[in-house]
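Colleagues,

For the teaching module next term, I've prepared a clean inverse folding example: a structure given as tokens, and then the sequence designed for it. I'd like students to try predicting residues themselves before seeing the answer, so please don't circulate the second half yet.
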């Protein structure tokens, strides 16, 4: 028996521990931000809501990508407290929207597996809604297929309860994860999100099959479908041809801080 020692492994662990320590400090110093990316309905041309996305600004002012720090927050368990903060922040933003006569907008929040595992996710969300006095159907939770991987029943039970209270549920990054289609029938869904990977080449010949199929599934299951990652007018045109109405992407707007989102709404109404 023998094993290798690779110094890179130790560097990697050290890097990870440092990042987690920094994230924990910055979160407790209230340095994380929640930004909002508008979602539009093309038939009305109006903003219908926004996806809330975490932003972490490092000491030198540059942003650390959520693709890097969310997995660390999940690994360390920090995502439970951060996720709680995100839900509360989103609810407080919903209240601000309401006070500015944008009461019909929805805010979608991304949710990770450890938040379900910790056992009090349902009460955390309900408490946030009550604290901020917002309508439950204005809050949408985005889950990914991967969330069902280790304990699907726990997640399904929690989502069913939340749905009973009026909260909306969306399936994010649909078609990119590891799940079985049978869950589609078990989850109390309201909306499917077509992932950017299926949008990128959609305007090219023969490249729209998956998006088209997701739209068909949505229609047959009576779910709304939103496409994400629209960057060009050609992608928008193709999606319209396929019957997609709801869009989110850099073509319309990038994620922005809450006050800029409010200004965006005022400029576009
Ligand atoms: P996601 O939920 O699929 O979010 C969409 C991502 O696509 C966002 O990246 C958004 O900025 C980006 N995006 C939107 N439109 C376009 C476009 O037209 N072109 C391109 N190239 N990108 C576009 P972001 O903000 O970097 O977030 C990455 C992922 O991190 C999210 O993917 C989500 O899984 C996770 N995340 C972000 N915030 C949270 C959070 O509060 N909680 C949890 N659990 N995860 C989060
Ligand atoms: Mg999302
Ligand atoms: Mg997504």
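(Answer key — instructors only)
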């Amino acid at each position: 028996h023998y094993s290798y020692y690779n110094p890179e492994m130790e560097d990697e662990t050290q890097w990870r521990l440092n990042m987690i320590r920094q994230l924990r400090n910055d979160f407790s110093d209230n340095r994380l931000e929640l930004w909002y990316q508008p979602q539009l309905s093309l038939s009305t041309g109006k903003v219908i809501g926004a996806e809330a996305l975490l932003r972490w600004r490092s000491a030198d002012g540059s942003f650390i990508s959520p693709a890097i720090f969310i997995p660390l927050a999940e690994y360390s368990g920090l995502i439970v407290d951060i996720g709680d903060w995100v839900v509360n922040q989103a609810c407080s933003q919903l209240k601000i929207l309401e006070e500015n006569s944008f009461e019909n907008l929805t805010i979608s929040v991304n949710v990770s597996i450890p938040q379900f595992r910790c056992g009090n996710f349902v009460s955390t969300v309900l408490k946030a809604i009550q604290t901020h006095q917002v309508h439950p159907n204005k809050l949408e939770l985005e889950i990914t297929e991967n969330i069902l991987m280790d304990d699907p029943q726990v997640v399904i039970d929690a989502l069913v309860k939340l749905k009973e209270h009026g909260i909306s549920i969306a399936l994010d990054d649909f078609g990119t994860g590891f799940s079985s289609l049978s869950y589609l029938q078990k989850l109390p869904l309201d909306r499917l999100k077509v992932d950017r990977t299926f949008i990128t080449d959609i305007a090219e010949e023969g490249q729209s099959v998956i998006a088209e199929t997701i739209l068909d599934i949505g229609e047959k299951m009576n779910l709304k479908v939103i496409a994400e990652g629209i960057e060009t007018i050609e992608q928008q045109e193709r999606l319209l041809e396929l019957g997609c109405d709801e869009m989110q992407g850099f073509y319309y707007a990038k994620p922005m801080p809450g006050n800029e989102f409010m200004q965006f709404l005022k400029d576009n109404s």
